[in-house]
Amino acid sequence: MAILNSNVPSGPLATKWENHKFSSKLINPANKRKYKVIVVGAGLAGASAAATLAELGYDVHNFVFHDSPRRAHSVAAQGGINAAKNYQNDGDSVHRLFYDTIKGGDFRSREANVHRLAEVSVHIIDQCAAQGVPFAREYGGLLDNRSFGGAQVSRTFYARGQTGQQLLLGAYSALSRNVANGGVKLNTHSEMLDLVVVDGQAKGIVVRNLQTGELTRHTADAVVLATGGYGNVFNLSTYARGSNVTAIWRAYRRGACFGNPCFTQIHPTCIPVSGDYQSKLTLMSESLRNDGRIWAPAKVGDKRAPAEIPEGERDYFLERMYGAFGNLAPRDVASRAAKTVCDEGRGVGATGLGVYLDFAESINRLGEDKIRERYGNLFAMYHEITDEDAYKAPMRIYPAVHYTMGGLWVDYNLMSNLPGLFVLGEANFSDHGANRLGASALMQGLSDGYFVLPATISNYLAGQAPAKRPPVSHAAFAEAEGDVQKRIQRYLGGKGKRTPSSFHKELGKIMWDYCGMARNRAGLEKALGLLGNLREEYRKNLSVLGEAAEWNQALESAGRVEDFIELGELMCRDALEREESCGGHFREEFQYTKEDPEVRNGLVNPGDVKRDDTHFAHVAAWEYAGPDRKPILNREELKYEEIKMSTRSYK
Amino acid sequence: MKVQLKVWRQKNRNTSGKFVTYESPDLNPNMSFLEMLDVVNESLASRSEEPIAFDHDCREGICGTCSLVINGKPHGPHKGVATCQTYMRSFKDGDQIVVEPFRAKAFPLVKDLVVDRKAFDRIQQKGGFISVRTGSAPDANSIPVPKENSDLAMDAAQCIGCGACVAACKNASAMLFVSAKVSHLGLLPQGQPERFRRVKAMVDQMDEEGFGACTVTGSCEAVCPKSISLDFIARMNRDYLVALAKGESKKPAAGGV
Ligand SMILES: Cc1cc2nc3c(=O)[nH]c(=O)nc-3n(C[C@H](O)[C@H](O)[C@H](O)COP(=O)(O)OP(=O)(O)OC[C@H]3O[C@@H](n4cnc5c(N)ncnc54)[C@H](O)[C@@H]3O)c2cc1C
């Protein structure tokens, strides 16, 4: 069994982080440069961490599979970033952001981490504005805000519909500055394919150069993974095609525990699937729900054009079901409501898997120009994809896979149970519990990278003798490189018929059908069987053309898809084991019904998720036990000191 | 629908390349251009022919990874969108479509349609930043920025760094790319202290990378997926002249650690 110590500092919640920073070990400036730190990833989390560690004086080596750090998937984030600035004077505070996040996550996150996130949020905005991030402003020159789901205050900062791009370019500029002055050695088109563990501690990585195919070994005093989320296990998602699980999956196979792997976020407002050639689902930002109203025809099978359906025959179902939050209900709640409506036969569009997101009222109230100014790029994107004009007719939307709350388990210092391995951003399980609120991923990535890791990494490094890291000739490096070699040879030597992408499609369908928006025991058990067969077939019937020592995209995906198949099994196992519903994890067996007092008292609706705090108020941290052996389930109990776990109500 | 593709195939930069013609399988007009290539690649693989290498990632027009010159135009037929946002309904059944990589001396070829655009990163490293240490920033609202300036800065900052401007230019100039960054930061109060050393350092690096001269023909603006305006080039030229007059040195703008 792995040892899971959350290392949450003692003392009152509001002063834990200050006290922890004060009691953290320091390393003197002259010694810092003797410590070599590998940072894998340069999204918001990785770029901010690499830049800041270099500013502090560490010898930082950054690796990304992209051709440039500026292309990390963070670039695609649209809507915004939260911070408890209370510039709107609408009652926001660190405590409110903290509370909203805990409640949004359905009481399955760690209190102390979330409080720290809310505290740090205000510094992120300062840092980004100083870097020249062109946040939206009011005519007085001060920063503007918008609202996001799961909150009743306006605390979201944004840069048109391209907030992720602008924040990433900010972090990339900081990274670039540190590359120029020698603080960061940047390695692009470099994919980490294994983690090297020496005497139980993470001490290096094995990397493949995607242009030449060359494998190299890199040693370090600590390894930081900021490699993003794994939603592409579903094949179709809002993620970039390249996003994958390999870095953290390899770390899992080397002993790092995987926390809550089944916690997936399905985003309510995405453009519906149109055909089986489809490679990607496009998000229509949650910010649209500030001005758009979601509805479906009230009658089953109503096929009239939206304009022909009179007001009285429309069901604005979020406003009806969740009055207090209405169209800004959190994502898991909004997605399930849309699914329910479609399951009842009230869905719209050719497939019947869609509901309307309607701007008519806002356009009447504010004028088309105002709406264009706020969301022009999203409307344009919608137009390109669907050939429809959303200024004239409502958008059609349907839920799609968007984010993974699960990830490698980390303690308060963001260190995994493998000493020396730190995990940041979407790759860790840390702050969002069973459901993430909109505009909080960017906040967490930058909090981890700019502020948390730079303060906590010294707690580990101070215990390591400077520059005593193992040489790359160490047996553990040779073994890891050998494993990578063997995998590559196995893929290229396969005599099968199917491409990695055909397997990926099949995997995605299994995951969506049985481990998607609604899950149940029979389905999950069936999925485990199907995935086992798929894994077997992958070994026998894979075909990868081309060579190892060249640019070879089929070879790249061969490794990624195999890791996804194994991950899929772990997700189903986790979903099966968690016999409750919480946040985005909806087990059909565990939902509120008309008979429950919470429904009768008007707190929740029938069909809402039903938690079981007695048995499941824990993080499920899965430990690898070897090939073909069942992984071991470790539990970190969640202790709430400040907040009482209660029924989540948005009515 | 079906189309005929004439695609540039080249194993690597040390071998010579050539156009190869493929008949596409049956397509759906609602497919994106890249989804069409996915389908063609699957059919190639099923015949044990090596798939066509092409760059892509977000597939929603923001990461700047996809490239391709389609029928002679970087990012294809439409204004203001990237290749990944080009849909097959823009073509007719039976069309021949010519697909080439972004060609420029400063963008060496990797394979088929994939080129290496690291030169852009190196330009950025010379000065595309505001030197502010993490933790040293003042409160974000302590520096008001007139909305007009901040909006204009955002117009420039939208550049996705794809390199279409370079591919469209007969001289393979990178002026639109560099001017977008220089203008974004130069329009903001936070960017003033390094304004002139920034422009000098970035332009010098651009020249060093082998990008050509700008003759303001506007072909870059015409293909830019984010419609970055030529005005930014004029703005950068003015700043560059001031920088020269001030005698900004050639050394990189990167401040100490
Ligand atoms: C369409 C969309 C819109 C979104 N909008 C918002 C929003 O408005 N607000 C919000 O808060 N959140 C939003 N999110 C979520 C948010 O964007 C992400 O959670 C966040 O950006 C993840 O950042 P990251 O740094 O953890 O990872 P990423 O940005 O995914 O970066 C991963 C990095 O790791 C590298 N990498 C990965 N594996 C390897 C490997 N094996 N070897 C080498 N390098 C590797 C990659 O090259 C990349 O640099 C959105 C997400 C999507 C999909």
Characteristics:
heterodimer, A: FAD/NAD(P)-binding domain, Flavocytochrome C3, Chain A, domain 1, Methane Monooxygenase Hydroxylase, Chain G, domain 1, 3 domains, five-stranded parallel beta sheet, five-stranded antiparallel beta sheet, 19 strands, 14% strand, B: 257 residues, alpha+beta, Ubiquitin-like (UB roll), Fumarate Reductase Iron-sulfur Protein, Chain B, domain 2, 2 domains, five-stranded mixed beta sheet, 8 helices, 7 strands
DSSP helical segment count of chain B: 8
Shape of chain A: globular
Distance between the termini of chain B: 58 Å
Per CATH, the architecture of the largest domain in chain B is Orthogonal Bundle
- SSE order of chain B: EEHEEEEEHHHHHHH
DSSP summary, beta strand count of chain A: 19
Q: Tell me the name of the CATH class of the largest domain in chain A.
A: Alpha Beta
Number of helices of chain A: 18
Total domain modules of chain B: 2
Lateral strand order in the biggest sheet of chain B: 2-1-5-3-4
Helix content of chain B: 25-40%
Which parts of chain B are unreliable, with pLDDT below 50 for 5 consecutive residues or more?
Answer: none
Radius of gyration of chain A: 24 Å
Poorly predicted ranges of chain A: none
The helix-and-strand class of chain A reads alpha+beta
Which CATH architecture of the largest domain in chain A is right?
A: 3-Layer(bba) Sandwich
Q: Which class of the largest domain in chain B in CATH terms?
A: Mainly Alpha
> Mean of residue pLDDT of chain A?
96
Can you give a write-up of this model?
The complex is a heterodimer of chains A (651) and B (257). Chain A has 651 residues and is an alpha+beta fold. Chain A has three domains: 13-263 and 405-461, FAD/NAD(P)-binding domain (3-Layer(bba) Sandwich), CATH 3.50.50; 267-401, Flavocytochrome C3, Chain A, domain 1, CATH 3.90.700.10; 491-617, Up-down Bundle (Methane Monooxygenase Hydroxylase, Chain G, domain 1), CATH 1.20.58. Chain A has helices at 16-23, 29-32, 44-56, 94-104, 111-131, 163-180, 246-253, 317-321, 331-343, 360-366, 368-386, 441-461, 475-493, 500-515, 521-541, 553-577, 597-600, 613-616, and strands spanning 36-40, 59-63, 81-82, 156-157, 184-187, 190-198, 201-209, 215-219, 222-225, 258-259, 264-270, 293-297, 314-315, 355-358, 395-404, 407-408, 421-423, 618-623, 632-637. In chain A, strands 5-2-1-9-17 form a five-stranded parallel β-sheet. In chain A, helix 5 (111-131) packs across helix 12, helix 10 (360-366) packs antiparallel against helix 11 (368-386) and helix 15 (521-541) packs antiparallel against helix 16 (553-577). By secondary structure, chain B is α+β, with helices and mostly antiparallel strands. Chain B folds into two domains: 4-111, Beta-grasp domain (Ubiquitin-like (UB roll), Roll), CATH 3.10.20; 118-246, Alpha-helical ferredoxin (Fumarate Reductase Iron-sulfur Protein, Chain B, domain 2), CATH 1.10.1060.10. Chain B has eight helices and seven strands, in the order E-E-H-E-E-E-E-E-H-H-H-H-H-H-H. Chain B has helices at residues 33-46, 118-127, 147-157, 164-168, 175-186, 195-208, 219-223, 231-245, and strands at 4-9, 18-23, 69-70, 73-74, 96-100, 109-111, 114-115. In chain B, the strands form two sheets. Chain B has a five-stranded mixed β-sheet. A two-stranded antiparallel sheet of chain B has the order 6-7. The longest helix of chain B is centred in the last third of the chain and has 15 residues, at 231-245. The termini of chain B are far apart. The model of chain B has no long low-confidence stretch (mean pLDDT 95). Chains A and B meet through helix 3, helix 5, helix 6, helix 11 and helix 12 of A and helix 1, helix 2 and helix 3 of B. The structure holds flavin-adenine dinucleotide. Flavin-adenine dinucleotide (FAD) is lined by residues 40-46, 63-66, 72-74, 76-81, 163-164, 191-192, 226-229, 238-239, 243, 246-247, 283, 402-403, 425-427, 439-442, 445 of chain A.
